Amino acid sequence: MKLKFILFFFFFSILINAQSWKLVWSDEFDAAAVNPFYWTYDIGGNGWGNNELEYYTNRADNSKIENGNLLIIAKKESYGGNAYTSARLKTQNLQNFTYGKIESRMKLPMGKGIWPAFWMLGKSITSIGWPKCGEIDIMEHINTEIKVYGTMHWDNNGHASYGGSTVCLPSDYHVYSLEWSSTYLRWFVDGNKFWEGNITNGINSTDEFQQPFFIILNLAVGGNWPGNPDATTTFPDTMAVDYVRVYQLSTGINEKNIDQRPANFFLEQNYPNPFNPETVINYQLPEPGFVSLKVFDVMGKEVATLVDEYKQAGHYKSSFAINNLPPDKNYRQLSSGVYFYQLRSGNHIVTKKM
Predict the structure, then answer these.
(1) Is 140 a catalytic site residue?
(2) What is the pLDDT of residues 3-13, one digit of tens each?
């Protein structure tokens, strides 16, 4: 009996340890300029709902890459009717994520009226607004406090929020992380958990957190929470971001992933094969879920994103025409050769050749 228990424990440990975080997207900020296929900008100086004082620009004066870091720079200058400038970068309409571990290593400014943030908004914000779209603040810091905050915002017959803070020295580099599944949101600094929120089965109307979100990095000046800068605040002030990485849970082959949505799908063989110049890719979802359908070349380089959104159960067709590529997508003209299309939902991945 003792031997059976030891063997059971051994194999159970193997299954548990088979779970690991697999990197699915990142920006290491090692290019010469900000990647336009990863990031776009919010522009303007309307207070952004918080009575902030800065005017956000896409100028190199306010955001640039230097020595492997993205630098977001707040400056005291008259611009667009505002007394300060800064930058707010986002992956909206470019990179959206549902569940996983989202993290960034960064060094933050610490001045009165300074408000750096690493956060996420629901993709649905353009259709249903805030707070119904949901908001996840992975890291916020204000003023000269020796701590950072993590908070979730949603709609529960009005604005609801839940969050906490932890002690750290933000002027040093730290790794700020969020682990997000269908049942929880967990906040970490340097791998140490300091807060957790329960979103199981939409408890307390938290259905917002079962949908795709995009990432935001910004450095605000002033606002309702931090207050305004004063004579002690030094400008320019800089938020340095070493990297942003997104992981999804990879499990052992026999282990069921409880965060997966939908539980399975069916990717049909496409015709004609090879395609010239157009093909239709068919797939079926037995239940609703977030779906990604992409095309890769033989070197594994992504050449097209056909689907990247939450879909209801049903049968779908996606057309891929190399002579009629939408200008707003990250496509490039394709030469003759072998390509692969991949359907992904949760940790289920199916790849076929075209």
Answers:
(1) yes
(2) 444 433 443 34
- In the set 54, 103, 135, 208, the catalytic residue is 135
∠ Cα 37 297 31 (to 5°) = 35
CA distance 210 to 290: 9
**Rounded Cα–Cα distance for residues 350 and 244 (Å):** 27
Cα separation, 180 vs 186, in Å, equals: 6
Helix runs in 44-116, H state only: none
Distance between CA atoms of residues 123 and 208, nearest Å: 10
Q: How many CB atoms lie within 10 A of CB 327?
A: 5
What φ, ψ does residue 126 adopt, rounded to 5°? -70, -20
- ∠95-101-102 over CA atoms, to 5°? 50
Tell me how crowded residue 149 is: count the other CB atoms within 10 A of its CB.
20
Three-state secondary structure readout of 195-245: EEEECHHHHHHCHHHHCCEEEEEEEEECCCCCCCCCCCCCCCEEEEEEEEE
- The 10s digit of each residue's pLDDT in 28-76 is 999 999 999 899 999 999 999 999 999 999 999 999 999 999 999 999 9
Alpha carbons 172 and 193: distance in angstroms, whole number: 18
Name the token pair of 201: 């089965």
Separation of alpha carbons 282 and 284, rounded Å: 7
- Cα–Cα distances (Å) from 85 to 65, 74, 91, 138, 243, in that order, read 17, 6, 20, 23, 23
Please calculate the CA angle 97-103-104 and round it to the nearest 5 degrees: 125
Amino acid at 99: Y
Structural tokens at position 168: 């750290």
Which of 54, 103, 140, 208 is catalytic? The answer is 140
Closest CA to 320 of 282, 265, 266, 267: 282
Task: Tell me, yes or no, if 135 is annotated catalytic.
Answer: yes
| Distances from the Cα of 172 to the Cα of 2, 99, 133, 164, 165, angstroms | 50, 28, 33, 20, 17
